[in-house]
Amino acid sequence: MPLHLETARLILREWDDSDVAEHRALVGERGGGLLSVEDNRRIMERQFARQRETGLALLAVHRRDEGDFIGYCGLTVGRASLDEPEIAYELFRRAHGRGYATEAAAAVLDAATATGRERLWSSVRPWNTPSFRVLEKLGFERDHTTAEESGELVWLTRSLP
Question: Are 7 and 65 a contacting pair, CB within 8 Å?
Fold first, then answer.
C-alpha cells in the first residue's frame, strides 16, 4: 500500500512526530480521558510495527490547504485478514460533516484496489451512524453482526474493484 495519497482536499501520509501528539488528542476525544504520552507512544509503536509486518498502514490525514492534522485513514488487519483487510478511519469532531472521511476512505479504497485485493471489511459500532453513511457511499454492504465484550459490532464488506 502506498504511504502517500492525495485527494483534492487532503494529503494522507506516513506519521511524523507532530502527528503523534495530535493522535493523543484524537484518542482523547473518544472519552475515557487523555492517554499518557508514554501510553500513546506505545500504541503508535505497535501500529508502526504492524505496518512493517503487513505492508498495510493507517495514514495521517491532513487538510491540503490548512496543513492541519484531522485524523487517520487506512488499511489494517484489525479483526480481518491480510488478504481482506479492514478499512479504518477516525477524524476529529471538528472535521466531521464535511466529507473528509468519505474522501480519505475513497483514496484508500482505490489504493487497496491497486494492490489486487478482492475484498475489504469494516467493523462499526451500531451507534456510529456517520461511519455507516461513509461506508454506504463507498459501496460497502452489511454482512453480519457479532457480539464482543465491549458490545455489538456490525461488519460490512465491499468487493473490489
Answer: no
Say if CB 158 and CB 119 are below 8 A apart. Answer: yes
Residues 4-43 have pLDDT tens digits of 999 999 999 999 888 888 999 998 998 777 888 888 888 8
pLDDT in tens, 86-111: 999 999 999 999 999 999 999 999 99
User: 63 pairs with which residues across the strands?
Assistant: 10
Residue 147 bridge partners (DSSP): 152
Helix axes 129-137, 100-114, angle to 10 degrees: 50
Strand partners, 157: 121, 141
CB-based contacts of 140: which residues, under 8 Å, 6+ apart? 120, 122, 156, 157, 158
Question: What is the separation of C-alpha 82 from the centre of its chain, rounded to a whole number of angstroms?
Answer: 15
